[in-house]
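$ ./design --mode recover --in tokens.txt
reading tokens...
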């Protein structure tokens, strides 16, 4: 080879190397851009609210109880109950009297001293030392999971996070004032420490995601939602319990707030009214179950609402420590809209912070109008409301109460009346600003309903969330686990509880629900009871062919009767959870007509048989036709190995998958002979169609 040819070859090689280096660099650049785009997408992925639990003043227990209070225009505010403190001993109408309060009212819930300690495995002695705020959070978190169709005993070991807005502990102060330091026991630290409001939920349910308490005063629980949103998008957890809790157990804070002239003098929170003179203290607890929207849709969960964006900031150096800052409020709303990719003009309703002060209300209204008025057509006004007029200001739990109300408004397309407004605050230009206060029950008829929720801490920490109603996602989510409403035949409805008394009460409540939900699908009730409820020690099952039989059976359980038609009672032994195994027979099992009345009516059975049919042939012909008819021809045909083996495989996989869809997961699956193929398919060793190919090849 000549020197010239060597130089040419060397040049070509260098050019080839440079081209390869350039190609790789371009590929790496493209990959980096795609990864950056994906990361950016995750940082703004919407979140789905899939479950809600709440206990608010006025008997507002659960979603429907809360909604009834709102649409009925009722107030849950009352005079301080005798069981809390002697209101006369601390009351004086003169606000200048030291050590006294001029407020006699608040929003109170019932039963704060009650607690099902046995449900959570807590000994009675320890339960006494636990702050009722912790107890309430445990129970409402449990209820929120059940509302989401998630059995609370099925989340152990999961990467579920717990994020709770909570302030101080009146219970701790009461205990110290009653018994002094000498009354402090070994449970006092964990019983009253604020962090344990979240940590105890994680411990009781076995949750392994982030677990933390947030205290930014009045904005605590909405800030908790913002923190949870970041954790979900960053992959720190796969789902989250987000909530807030506040209980009024002693008069100390009420006296302090009265001395600062922050409370209403007549027990009415007059948000946006000319006579607004302060807020009314309230208590309660709310919890929502939140997931990444893509995960919730993939698993067919019910979507109650979508959190598009959240934001939080601080007033900084305002004109006073507790004086709101309008520019900061504008900025937090703008940021939440930007994160959610929502235009200001798309927001139709705002659940305002609205504490009912002559200074704070005008600042908030003007800030909302300045941001949400951008791009809005003339005459298109943002509707305003504040749940504080119904239940008082829940302080650390105020944000979650407002969020749950806004979710219901966006879901149901109805705006409840805003209470206690006789004359609008004259410091706001109501005619010139694109906002209006909803004073009567009204329809919200937009197809796409987007709402904002504001919550501002009196120390200056602001939070805002932008949510969307579920209408755009209802066709994508399966509700009750994708249960087909067209199924026929009897249903089996499970009831379980930690004690016999709780079992009777659970049966009573379920019976009342079935009666009230006259148009509801009984199969959905059966699915929710079987899959979305924990398997506890005391249990009963009701087999019912129609609504009347189901209600009758549940009433029998509630009455405590041992014997009733269609009712089975039982109790789990002390040995722990039952162990379930699937055993699949080999050839020779009776198969003729085994899927008769199921194929074409049950979605799971139909899907699996149709998958097998893509390999073995149409359902209308053998071998699958033999599963749908119990006549002599089918019985005779199943004596033929070529027919029996694929038929057995199809029936076993279909029925096994059906049990799994009902929440019955086996610890082991055993198959004899041909049944081993079905066992392998049910345990995921290979797909349903792969197993069908193997059966057809080796029969």
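writing sequence...
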């Amino acid at each position: 080879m000549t020197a010239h040819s060597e130089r040419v070859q060397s040049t070509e090689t260098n050019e080839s190397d440079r081209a390869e280096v350039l190609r790789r660099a371009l590929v790496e650049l493209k990959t980096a851009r795609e990864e950056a785009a994906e990361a950016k997408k995750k940082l703004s992925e919407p979140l789905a609210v899939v479950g809600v639990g709440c206990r608010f003043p006025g008997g507002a227990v659960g979603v429907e109880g809360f909604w009834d209070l709102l649409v009925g225009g009722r107030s849950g505010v009352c005079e301080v109950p005798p069981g809390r403190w002697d209101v006369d001993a601390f009351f004086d109408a003169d606000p200048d009297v030291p050590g006294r309060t001029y407020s006699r009212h608040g929003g109170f819930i019932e039963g704060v001293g009650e607690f099902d300690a046995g449900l959570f495995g807590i000994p009675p002695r320890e339960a006494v030392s636990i702050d009722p705020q912790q107890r309430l959070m445990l129970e409402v978190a449990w209820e929120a999971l059940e509302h989401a169709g998630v059995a609370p005993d099925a989340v152990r070991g999961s990467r579920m996070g717990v994020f709770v807005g909570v302030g101080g502990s009146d219970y701790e102060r009461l205990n110290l004032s009653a018994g002094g330091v000498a009354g402090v026991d070994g449970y006092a630290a964990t019983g009253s420490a604020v962090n344990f409001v979240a940590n105890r939920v994680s411990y009781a349910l076995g949750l392994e995601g982030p677990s933390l308490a947030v205290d930014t005063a009045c904005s605590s629980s909405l800030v908790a939602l913002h923190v949870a949103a970041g954790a979900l998008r960053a992959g720190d957890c796969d789902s989250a319990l987000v909530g807030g809790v506040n209980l009024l157990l002693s008069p100390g804070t009420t006296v302090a707030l009265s001395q600062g002239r922050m409370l209403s003098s007549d027990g009415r929170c007059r948000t946006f009214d000319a006579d607004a003179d302060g807020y009314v203290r309230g208590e309660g607890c709310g919890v929502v179950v939140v997931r990444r929207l893509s995960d919730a849709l993939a698993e067919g969960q019910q979507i109650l609402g979508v959190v598009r964006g959240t934001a939080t900031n601080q007033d900084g150096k305002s004109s006073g420590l507790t004086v709101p800052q309008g520019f900061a409020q504008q900025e937090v709303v703008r940021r939440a809209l930007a994160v959610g990719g929502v235009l200001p003009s798309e927001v139709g309703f705002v659940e305002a912070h609205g504490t009912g002060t002559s200074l704070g209300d005008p600042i908030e209204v003007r800030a909302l109008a300045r941001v949400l008025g951008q791009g809005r057509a003339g005459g298109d006004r943002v509707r305003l409301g504040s749940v504080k007029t119904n239940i008082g200001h829940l302080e650390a739990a105020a944000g979650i109460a407002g969020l749950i109300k806004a979710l219901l408004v966006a879901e149901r397309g109805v705006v409840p009346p805003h209470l206690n407004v006789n004359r609008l605050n004259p410091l706001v230009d109501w005619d010139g600003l694109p906002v209006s206060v909803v004073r009567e029950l009204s329809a919200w008829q937009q197809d796409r309903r987007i709402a904002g929720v504001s919550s501002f801490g009196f120390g200056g920490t602001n939070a805002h969330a932008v949510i969307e109603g579920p209408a755009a996602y209802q066709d994508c989510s399966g509700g009750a686990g994708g249960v087909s409403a067209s199924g026929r035949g009897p249903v089996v409805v499970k009831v379980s509880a930690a004690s016999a008394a709780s079992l009777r009460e659970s049966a009573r409540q379920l019976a009342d629900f079935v009666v009230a939900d006259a148009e509801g699908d009984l199969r959905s009730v059966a699915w929710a009871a079987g899959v979305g409820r924990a398997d506890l020690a005391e249990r009963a099952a009701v087999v019912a062919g129609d609504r009347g039989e189901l209600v009758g059976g549940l009433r029998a359980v509630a009455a405590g009767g041992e014997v009733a038609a269609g009712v089975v009672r039982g109790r789990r032994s002390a040995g722990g959870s039952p162990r379930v195994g699937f055993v699949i027979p080999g050839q020779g099992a009776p198969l003729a007509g085994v899927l008769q009345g199921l194929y074409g009516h049950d979605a799971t059975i139909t899907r699996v048989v149709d998958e097998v049919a893509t390999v073995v042939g149409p359902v209308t012909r053998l071998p699958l036709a033999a599963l749908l008819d119990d006549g002599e021809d089918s019985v005779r045909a199943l004596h033929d190995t070529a027919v029996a083996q694929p038929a057995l495989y199809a029936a076993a996989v279909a029925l096994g998958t059906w049990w799994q869809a009902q929440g019955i997961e086996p610890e082991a699956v055993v198959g004899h002979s041909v049944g081993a193929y079905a066992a392998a398919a049910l345990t995921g060793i290979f797909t349903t169609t792969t197993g069908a190919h193997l059966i057809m090849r080796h029969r």
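exit 0
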